[in-house]
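User: hey, got a sec? need [histone H3]-lysine(4) N-trimethyltransferase folded
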Amino acid sequence: MMECEGIAGIEQFSSPGKGRGLRVSRAYEAGELLFSCPAYSYILSVNERGFICEQCFTRKKGLAKCGKCKKAFYCNVNCQKKNWPMHKLECHAMCVYGENWCPSETVRLVARIIARLRHQRERSPSEKLLLLRDMEGHMEDMDNEKRELNEAHIAGLHHFYSKHLDFPDHQALLTLLSQVHCNGFTVEDEELSSLGLAIFPDIALLNHSCCPNVIVTYRGINAEVRAVQKISPGQEIYTSYIDLLYPTEDRIERLRDIYYFSCDCKECTTKSMDMEKMKVRKLSDEISQKEIRDMVCYARNAMEDFRRAKHEKGPAELLEMCELSIDKMNTVFDDANIYILHMMYQAMGICLFMENYDGAVRYGEKVMKPYTVLYPAYSLNIASMYLKMGRLYMALDRKSTGISALQKVQTSPKLTGPYVISNLYDSLVEDLECSAQITNPVLNFLEHDS
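Assistant: Yep! Here you go:
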């Protein structure tokens, strides 16, 4: 029996209507760290290899590569040795399969979890409140499409990892995949670009609200839970599982699809921001409700088409898709409508990937102001946009504009104080000019599109 250590100031309890949850046993102020949790298991995205250390997720130049596979990169020998128990699951296979080595990120993460579970004898530092095996999986709620996807993942596990892993039985694999589907975290950098996937059992206990009182950010392979408003003793801790930009109907649909519940928070009940998020153009002839409904349907389909196209089309084709959809939506929607903002954000990412920094700035400037209105004041999406824009301005030799944008990240009262940037980008305080460096412009910039 693995003894539960607990976390000072935090306790697990039965949350009415929500199952397990976490609440505080003392008061916390906005900006205060409630607790941190190291990843139980994690993987770096293939696109980030060569730019980030596989072990500690530090982004730096001059990383040393694995002498055998030449695909994994590390800060130093110590990081390489620490990572070997996990990297060895892939090292030989990558050499054998070459370009045909292509397990999904989910498969890679599950393989590492299985390897760790096989040798684990005591509770890990990631499981002070909840054991990984006790995470919720919602297997009974999965539709046929998700069940088929899990079967495909199991086939991938056997294909790429059978020489290095002893697998549990089929049902146990299905359970583990379901748990990862519901509880996996996308580890992000300071610009909210995806770096990889991870499991944090203790943080999986946090319930969702579209009016959260904490946010989860990442420092290397550690997740940190930090208050964004004052929390009183006995209050439940809530984070947001999804991007809060979108209107109530879209958020509820996404929560049902991925997490199998409906949110009943104040924002979902009052829908107070929906009118602002769904702005339509002011024309001489009033736009009918049918035209609005039809355009919403078109916008959602366009977003879904774009998600699929990211894996099939080149940057120029993707940019054209964005521009065509923006033009069509502009016949009904205002520029600050969230569906237009979504496609503009994608267009900004494509321009960045193509090193068209003028285009990226043009789209970024159109997105920036509406973001500050539509996102909650504490949102990291606002901070990350100021950071992106500051770096772009500096790269385009618009130094004063760049410094102004970067200073807004640090000093804006709308960001609930300096804790946001202290958690995201410590080095910014020391040297603003270093932000002229544009981070690796890979297409995972486009992954933050939920």
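Quick note: The radius of gyration is 22 Å. Let me know if you need anything else on [histone H3]-lysine(4) N-trimethyltransferase.
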